[in-house]
Amino acid sequence: MSSLVKCPHCGLRPREEFTIRGEVPTPRPAAGADESVWFDHVYLRDNPRGQHREYWHHSGGCRRWLVLDRNTVTHETGDVVDASTLKSEGRA
Amino acid sequence: MTSFRIDGGTLIDRDDVREFTFNGERLRGFGGDTVASALLANGRQLVGRSFKYHRPRGILTAGAAEPNALLTIGRDGRRDPNTRATMAELFDGLEARSQNCWPNVDFDIGAMNGLLGPLLGAGFYYKTFMWPAAFWEKVYEPLIRKAAGLGRASYDPDPGSYEKCWAHCDVLVIGAGPAGLAAALTAGRAGARVIIADEGAQLGGGMLAEGGMIGNKPADAVLADMVGELHALPNVEVKKRTTVFGAYDDQVFAAVEQVQKHLSDAAINPDRAMERLWRIVAKQVILATGAEERPIVFGGNDRPGVMTAGAMRTYLNAFGVAPGKQVALFANNNQAYQTAMDLEARGIEVAAIIDPRKCPDIDYGGKARLIAGAMVRDTAGRKAIKSIAVRHDDGRDEMIAVDALAVSGGYSPIVHLACHRGARPVWSDEHVGFMPPENCDGMVPAGAVAGKAGIASCFVAGATAAVSVLNALGLNAAPAGLPDTQTADDIAQGTVAIWSVPSSKGKAFVDYQNDVTAGDINLAMREGYDHVELAKRYTTNGMATDQGKTSNVNAIGILAQNKGVSPGAIGTTTFRPFYTPVSFGALVGASKGFEFQPVRKSPLHGWAERNGAKFVETGLWYRSSWFPKDGETFWRDSVDREVMNVRENVGICDVSTLGKIEIFGADAAEFLNRVYCNAFLKLPVGKARYGIMLREDGLVYDDGTTSCLAENHYFMTTTTALAAGVLTHLEFCAQVLWPDLDVRLASATDQWAQMAIAGPRARDVLAKIIDDDISNDAFPFLAARDVSMFGGRLTGRLFRISFSGELAYEIAVPAGYGESVADAIMVAGKEFDIAPYGTEALGVMRIEKGHVTHAEINGTVTPADLGMGRMVSAKKDDFIGRVMNMREGLVDPMRPALVGIKPKSLADKFATGSHILKIGDEVSLANDQGYVTSMCYSPNLGHAIGLALVKGGPERYGEEVVIWNGLAGTSITGILCNPAFVDPENEKLHA
Amino acid sequence: MRYSALSLLGNTFSKNKNWKPAWRNPDPKPRYDVIIIGGGGHGLATAYYLSKVFGVRNVAVLEKGYLGSGNIGRNTTIIRSNYLLEGNNPFYEFSMKLWEGLEQDFNFNAMVSQRGVINLYHSDAQRDAYTRRGNAMRLHGVDADLLDRDQVREKLPFLDYDNARFPIMGGLMQARGGTVRHDAVAWGFARGADQNGVDIIQNCEVTAIDRDGDQITGVQTTRGAIKCGKLAMAVAGSSSHVARMVDMHLPIESHALQAFVSEGLKPFIDTVVTFGAGHFYVSQSDKGGLVFGGDIEGYNSYAQRGNLACVEHVAEAGMAMIPALSRVRILRSWGGIMDMSMDGSPIMDRTHLSNLYFNGGWCYGGFKATPASGYCFAHLLATGTPHETATAFRMDRFARGYLLDEKGVGAQANLH
User: Fold this and answer.
1) Cα distance from C238 to chain B (closest Cα, Å)?
2) Do A49 and C241 touch (CB under 8 A)?
């Protein structure tokens, strides 16, 4: 777990400024999607042992939602992007 | 008792005489002494009793690994149990006591346990104390608990203060022995930001025990030069008495600095911290933690007077303390011979050197008799060693009289910090020890921790390590010009492993503190606990306060020997933080007592205080809960009056703690429409609307009102509890789910002072301070807009909303004006008998009105459960929670739903949290019908009323039920009813 | 060998040379009727009850490390049955009843110590919630007492009553709650199961699961292929990882939880106490160490360790409750991986594969559940139907909306 997290908006900031929500699940389904697709989105998690994409919130900073790549075994963090980019890629 | 203090001692100051007591006896030592060195100087070899067998124990080490010499130091709130005498610095007036002995350390009744030795073998308690079953808690366990434990902690408050800091550096050097010092000097001279931390009171590590010369200079002068230069470098921070105790992710290191723990009570500055927690973030780390000398496992190896060879050398050279008059050395490596040389150099007789190696490759120039190929198999002496039994190579036994025995079984690199993040150390046959892991978690090990022996090679290793990390930082660096070491010989270790002496007589201890013997390890193996972790857990080896620093590798060695494999195949147990124990105080810092958490105060706090409010903690907030008047002694007196005054006249209540969120943007309406389950698309400017927000799982998250203040500008209120949560949720929706929507959010909770003015005269009061027309026609129920106040001097936001069910407004003004406006309202309302009311009265009125709070919105209810199912839009395509809200289990007609409840006999009382049963049903969880979510005494109705979530809900209005409170032993008959007890037709609201 | 006062005495005279191994160290057989993946508390308990109560003895427990190396050996040893919901409470009370007779049953002293558990409350709302909970317990015949401030003070005079940021108002006590020596639970179940013929195979990691259609046929392991009639997963912490071998996605995230022990002290605190204004729970072991813990770290993790921020939070909450802890030293911290389910309650059910059974999602409540989890899972494996106290732990409750959410925080794993 990084002591300093690279917020794409604020630069390197202390880990304590961030709040973690958890795994980025399947994209939020379209309104008319089947209930089972919604179930996957709301409840099922990949929960990998290794590289993991997760939502962080810069709650004590710019208050943007971010997506971090992080390893769940070593806790090493990789790329950080603003979470709004997921939608355009069909991943949120 | 004879003094064992001799000449020399680089650490002590003989002009600084310090008095202390040990078990009540007055003794003297010097400045620079540890409690251990002072006790030894006073001839006190027996300092404590062991955990299980209460065997007499002395001082084994001169450092952090000490398993035996644990003392309780200080008294009352300054009492530190389990303090290692080897680490505690002596101060004037120090009081030290032995632990785990009764009536005293010399005569300890508990020592009778020793006779039961075989009965109390490893894991004996798992096999017995089971009969009769009830005896465990009543008889056996109390006895065990009383006998177990070490020191006694004080219940008195600690008068000391503590603090925490962050520190950032380019290079963190952990350990200030020769390798660490050379590394810090190299890095410091290269201009890097360096922190060098060492647990000792003085820098120097192993150099402190050097009595002789380094090059052509005395060792202490060399050390003084190096330390002096480090202190003079502005980019180097030197932290003495600072133990780096944990390595965490991303090069965050936890360290604790003893700021004043080594000072006498009189010398303590109350304005300074006793201890300081450092969270050090380092770009590069040099691990120069040294190596721990291992004891050897042989019969009677725990007798006071038995000491590691290195410790003996430290007491001799650094503290000027002779370990005895006739000393033997039992060692399997060359380095330990230095102790014998130093003893002889100081005129102390070395009776024998017992070396299990048949042909030790060493040229010992001293007088001592060298017995090669031999082992010590036993010791004798009641409370201190008197003699040793040596088993010669040819099987012959010989008794040698000694009053101290130095032991060295080789050296274990102190790899803890390199392994805290999960890496495993690597066994080395060459070094006969577990070495730092290959990829040492970003740390560069240097010196003894990496298997180097001797000061010269440690200097070089430290400097070389520093160059490598400096290069990694992009700095050009050369090894520091280091002291000339040409004549300081490095002694190759030449260790030959012997873990336990096979011919041992009597108990041979592996873990001194937990009284684990070689026999215990063998027993664990025989019983199937042969994995190193199982052996540890079964025997408790390595689980004492020293965490196995002197015992773990020996235990592994014994397991390996018995299995006929390499210790590397056995592996180690897991190295975990903390390297040495750390006080709660240091980890807590200033966040204690009332300062545990910050306090949030409403902008109207002062106003409420002036009006005599009683406050209640609501999360971090202080909210005014009621306002007692003269003569009101019972809280209900005030609350009932406040409620009646609102219902009959008018009241004012601080609602500033509600969450407030400003929402802007061209798509703000669409956004609200998606986050609320009810329709928000067509909320006109100047109107407020009650909204229910679901989670994506279809259950209610929060409720509140949102007002449209202008085109594309909305103002949302949330409950106090979820102010932050709702904002975070909205941000998630706006940024992640619908980044295409043009919407911006900002918290305004702290920007506005907001108060509710409720009661039939509310409009009369507000009309006196608001310039605009607020008549019912001009400002009807759910109107919301900016208003001019006090003749245009202030603009406020006025909302006609009501939680109490009365004609009510909420007026928000910029926070700084809050108290003045509240005062003005009080003045304006005086003629209408306005009175402040608090959260208690608010709670009563909302229950009377059947309004829900988080007592009902408990995270498991749907809008339908709360009687608001019709609010859930069937027309909207999409909103948060729409699909999951329709799941089978969430529309089950037998779900609990909101009802009112009142006692059949109106004089009866009942409590929130009571459960509901059908009349006549057996009392069982299966028959549970629901529970009372909220209750109060209604001064309007003159009896208790409540809200409840009950299976079937409104279908059951009129049904008589049992209100069951088994905790209080009460059970009354209640009647389920409509939750709107007051004004169900909403006439007051619209008045 | 049966442990008794006599056997202990006899072995004393023979200098403990004649103790037999507590369990065998068998090589895997080619086939078992039931293979249980996971030699932790739940897996071993399942094997024990399968072989003892349900007569299924051709059973193997496969453990990738040493037996008891999962969360059974890294928890804070607390047992209690103070649950709120109808789907949970009877199960945990069943577990408590099993604890109460466990040691005599498996002939191993696990030091079940019913020292009492007190949950403090600091506000009216917390008191009301505990009233609801205590009454739910009472409805099921579980002991529960609501203590006021004075009653708590009498039992725990050393808490902070005078200068607390969140004053203590009282507590909910379950006198039958307490602590158990955690490792000994694993060993007792292992020894008992072994004596009934169960093969406990250590250092045997399952690397793949073999299927034929919707049937499991066996497993591939680091000690070779093994066939089975039924396959049971009891690998909480790694549930998602193992489930992935059969393409199963779970409503579970793995999170790290730290626990701590202080230096040994003479008796300092007699009961289990939990703080209501922060995350902290503490008891004192028979050996004298204060054993305590706090909240999960908050990020998904398979590393059995945590970070410094959580250490500090736990210490702060601890001292807010017991100011005298200031000079008590913390000896060691460690970490375990929690199967955090999406409603905070466990899952014990059949799966989409006809002979694969799942047991997991215990969040941080798995230790107290160990005996009942083993018993009920054995019931499910042997009879095909859930035990009467475990009918709510269905896998499909999330899809159907019959959630077991004691905290009411919804589908976010790290909030439970």
Assistant:
1) 17
2) yes
